[in-house]
């Protein structure tokens, strides 16, 4: 989590972070889906259902954190309730 209050898509781009996520995704997908990965790492391939389950479960933490941040941004702060400017 890069920010505890700002939505991830509103932050400045971090090209190194984007590149590292893309590279690690390619490596993991290669291990899971290519036959050479099965031999080297003793894995088996995923069918469509398994792939969808993994995809949904991988996105859940991001979705949950972003929803929590949105809820906290909408919640009035205690300073505003007391009449103090923020």
Describe this structure in words.
This protein is mainly alpha-helical. It folds into two domains: 14-44; 46-75, no CATH class. Helix content is 66%, strand content 0%. It is built from four helices and no strands. The longest helix has 27 residues, at 48-74. The two termini are 25 Å apart. The relative contact order is 0.10. The mean pLDDT is 84.
Mean pLDDT comes to 84
Overall 3D geometry?
elongated
Assess the beta-strand content as a share of residues. Answer: under 5%
The ordered H/E elements are HHHH
Number of helices: 4
Overall structural domain count: 2
Question: How would you sum up the major sheet?
Answer: none
Flag low-confidence runs.
Answer: none
Q: Please tally the β strands and state the result.
A: 0
The termini sit apart by: 25 Å
How much helix is in the residues?
55-70%
**Secondary-structure class:** mainly alpha
CA-atom Rg in angstroms: 20 Å
Summarize this entry quickly.
This protein has 86 residues and is mostly helical. It contains four helices and no strands.
């Amino acid at each position: 989590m890069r920010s505890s209050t700002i939505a991830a898509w509103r932050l400045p781009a971090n090209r190194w972070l984007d590149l590292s996520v893309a590279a690690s995704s390619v490596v993991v997908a290669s291990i899971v889906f290519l036959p050479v990965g099965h031999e080297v790492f003793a894995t088996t391939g995923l069918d469509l259902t398994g792939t969808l389950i993994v995809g949904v479960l991988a996105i859940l933490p991001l979705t949950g954190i972003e929803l929590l941040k949105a809820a906290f941004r909408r919640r009035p702060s205690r300073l505003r309730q007391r009449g103090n400017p923020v």
